[in-house]
Amino acid sequence: MFFYLFFSFVVAQRLIELVIARRNEAQMKAKGAFEAGQNHYKWIVLMHTAFLISLFGEGGLLGNGPVQWWYIPFALFIVTQCLRIWSLVSLGQFWNTKIIILPGAKVVARGPYRFMRHPNYVIVATEIIVIPLIFQAYITAIVFTILNAIVLSFRIRVEEQALQQATNYYETFSKRPRFFPKETK
């Protein structure tokens, strides 16, 4: 029962995010924004859909219930949700599942973006590991961690290139780490 409630929450959250992303995309395009990286977006959608299907199969249908130490990955999941909301609120209308670029705009450098360039990708990568671990879906955790790394290696390159060409991205983030904050002196 816990799996199905948890799974439903994750799916509902993803659907809400898609609604927010579409609204933000429309607002940004009305201001002159363009989409970059359209060719790889379908692979991101496919990977995330396959992740949910795999999680449902391995963690739900074939699962043995939550792992004995479920509270550890569950606590990490809760932390990622707080970070997800912080990231989404910090980006505001600039948050999207697609790469939507508003030429001449100043990139957002507040919230978690003060510490790293891509906190949302760290959040997603963490979720792809910890959600399956809660339900002993080890194959899902391993396979989709690898697939996500491959997809992100393309996406981040395209996103950063588009941001550098159309915004103040380089000036703002050239000395900021991509994923993990550096210790400050």
The backbone outline, from C-alpha atoms, is elongated
Strand order of the largest sheet: 1-2
Oligomer: single chain
Give the mean pLDDT: 89
Beta strand count: 2
Helix percentage range: 55-70%
Strand count, sense and barrel status of the largest sheet are: 2 strands, antiparallel
Strand content: under 5%
- Which value, in Å, is the CA radius of gyration? 17 Å
- Low-pLDDT runs: none
Membrane topology: Multi-pass membrane protein
GO biological process, one term: methylation
InterPro entries: ICMT_MeTrfase, Metal_cation-efflux_comp
Protein name: Isoprenylcysteine carboxyl methyltransferase
Structure description:
By secondary structure, the chain is mainly α. The chain contains six helices and two strands, in the order H-E-H-H-E-H-H-H. Helix 2 (38-61) packs antiparallel against helix 5 (138-166) and helix 3 (71-91) runs antiparallel to helix 4. The longest helix is centred in the N-terminal third of the chain and has 29 residues, at 2-30.
